[in-house]
User: Fold these one by one.
Assistant:
Number 1:
Amino acid sequence: MECKSILDLPLDIKLDFLSSLDSVTCLRKVLHREIGIAGRALVRMRRFKANKTEAELIEALPSTEDEKPESPQAYLSELLSVRRPVRFFSRLFFQTRFRNRRVRFQSSIRLEDILEDMETVTDSEYARVDEAYYTIWLYRELNYNVELRSFQHVTAINEWAFWKKDGSLQVVPDLGILSHVLRVTSLEIIYPHVLQYHQTLSQEELETIATVVDALCLYEKHGVASMLITQLGFDGLQEVLEISGERMRETISNIYWNPVRADLAGGSISNSITQFPTLITNFWHFIEPTYQTDIRRVWRYPGGVYRRYVAPWNQYPPFDITALVWDDKRLESWGYVYPMGTKDSHCEYDMALEEQMCAGDCSVIGCAAP
């Protein structure tokens, strides 16, 4: 059977079907296309870092050998190693979206309702969220232990991962979707587990951690999630989430007290709260001069005007950044409308993503959030 005869099937059906075939090349081609540019850049990055110690990575730079897999079978394994965890988190993402929507419009929800909703997620909707997770994971791989390398080495690795030979960017994520997926992952997928751990701590323990972190509430909502992603990757985080609750609590406990251990050792304490949001903000500042107008149907009421040179998270209400992941057909059925036009001017009160997240998620009035 030729690949083109099944290209229009949902990805999960493709995987189940192709896995039963004696055609590694066929399955590899499908996965190669489905994970997109960001996913393939992530695969190359992980291939470069494989089998190297931290000491070796201080001086190691990518070579032409890192552009090529060892074999079709090895490449299939590499693709699956990033594809499975990403789709795991994409499913969790959509589950939270449907659950929240049903809670908003219904007094009660049933598991079967959520499962029925999940059957309606389209390939294009999954692709948008998948790309965001591949990109966040790529950021993690690029910046893990970055402080051990020289500026020249960091620059060279980033150029290798992000740039084409003709000088154009090969990974240009939708920053609105990227910021939304990051926020949902922190607050709705990971934070509930952190909150359960928080409830096991004494007041004395909470006061101890509060002395060495900026804004305990933000640290628990965003900082711990950031450190979990940074230290475990999405594959390691998936493994922890799928195992018992006790394993999750142990993992969170080890991560949670890292700032205290660093402080006692006299080392520097990284600002984990804004680690990923700062990267997204910096990327926005880089691509903003050439950013194209967004004409997706993300206005909840008529009359919306899209501000061309303003980050998606700073658009005027009733722009709904949470709607960016959905197809236009679905949004139209939910009552969303197209913007009335665009506005080129900048705005003085635009906030960086990290500032906006801190302002919106800090539960302490007057807290000196970073």
Number 2:
Amino acid sequence: MARISDSLGAEGLLAGTSVLDRPAEEFENDPSVEAMWAIKAYEHAEIYFNILCSVDPRILRLTPHDDLIYKTFREHFPDMKVAVLNEDEIKSPEGKVKWREFCEKFKSVVEDYSFGTLIRSDVDTEYSESNSILVTRIQFYAIELARNREGCNDHVRSKFKPVKDKQ
């Protein structure tokens, strides 16, 4: 996957990072700001996947509030299958209403709870254009915590861990 940051260069990245700290209301649909958000979401996904490839996901802590997030998620979505996500279940009008209620519970608890974040739609595949869904940060935490605690990500280390060069 080509990196967006490669096409912007260092100057573009530095200029854009300060922009992301400003209130969203100040901007219209500015392509450069949208590109910066895409870069930030992609870099978050890349870092998270590298961590999954290195650490036992069952012991991985994503936030100081993991227990609360997971408990609340399973109270709101007790039957949601997290191994393979149904994007319609998340983004349908009914799904949006349910998720909004869940997400707002974390507005003052989880920093950047509403930031756009990429999540793999299928745990058996790495991040790619066809295997990524844009969700809020709190949705990412909720689903990934469930995946980690329920064993859905257990295979990632063995399946995707880079093979060390033999000398």
